[in-house]
Amino acid sequence: MQIAPTNKKERIATLDILRGFSLFGILLVNILSFNYPMNYVELRTYFTAPSDLQGEKWIMILVQGSFYPLFAWLFGYGLQMQATKAHSLGESFLPLGSKRMSILLLFGLFHAFFIWYGDILTTYAIFGFILILMLKLKPKVQFIIGMCIYSVFALFMLLTMWVTEKMSDQYELSSYTDITNVKSSIEAYGSGSWLDAMGQRLIDVSSQFSFTMWVAMFFTVFPFMLVGAAMSQWKVIEKSKKKAIVWTIVAVIAIPLGIYFKAQLYGNNFEFFGQGLNIAVGAPLLMIGYTSAIIALCSIPGVAKILSPLSYAGRMSLTLYIMQSIIQSILFYGFAIGLYGKLGVINLIYISIAIYVFQLGFARIYLSYFKQGPLETLWKKVTYSK
């Protein structure tokens, strides 16, 4: 029996709402990269206006580092659902899954090289190939492996930062600046032609796709995919209404704890150990808190209806993710409107909200005429073509 694509009746609204929610968090972080040379300077030293410093601070605390893991968790959850469906039909998911990841990789590479260097699709596709090989494992095994991988990273990060801090009395994380690339980024993206931006993008992509970054992504992204796959087998979303109180308790505990640990980055002059707590402890805790809160809220019929517009965005998250990059390229790069570096962080937050609201409306209207977003349709057609 041939494996068929997921139909509308098989979709889980809570998963789509979570995907739609995560798109907003990703947009809030990415808009800073579209406006400032984040690869080469710590923004807290780049800004001088108090409003910019406060805006950057709260994006770093409430958003940065907590939404890509959420998307990775959702990615693992969804991929495991597809694999489970294939296995129930007596089919191997390996050929179909590999084809899906190959197409996603092409989307990601095109996005990275021609639109925006900070692409995450390539990362998900590469680790998706590895995940496919582990989708037949028992959920307990998937969960333990994922937790072990992340624990190694967290312990290494905290230990390294603690030792470095003890050895460096004068140095602060905020002092990192690559003047040459800061200037070239501002010139290429702020006032340069499309070819100028392309040239700088190739430099930025090379740093994003470095061996060090791939190792970092393996320890910070792949574990959440595995945990998501395990929870998919346990059907935690499908059974969430029966555990609404548990999800609520987790959210009430994890959100304030996550904020507390992420805020340590801004204590004691941005010390190294505070950076470690922010990345290794605070970011995943806040991700768990946000996820639990959305799941708990979706168990309340009236609230679920209020959140339902997010599900339309979630159903076409690939299209909207790429669309965000295209819109921001037009708004901020020199070859188009050219607002690069000209707006403060607070204004960028307002623009993010405007883009997101537009996308919610666009998704609602588009999906009233079509079953999927355009890129999702293309992905499906190529995947299931013979």
TrEMBL record:
UniProt key word Transmembrane helix: yes
Assigned keywords, A-Z: Membrane, Transmembrane, Transmembrane helix
Gene source species: Kurthia zopfii
Annotated TM spans: 21-38, 58-79, 122-137, 144-163, 211-232, 244-261, 281-306, 318-340, 346-367
PANTHER family: INNER MEMBRANE PROTEIN
UniProt cross-references to InterPro entries, sorted A to Z: Bact_Transport_Assoc, DUF418
Domain DUF418: 235-385
Taxonomy of the source species: Bacteria, Bacillati, Bacillota, Bacilli, Bacillales
Protein's name according to its UniProt entry: Predicted membrane protein
Domain of life: Bacteria
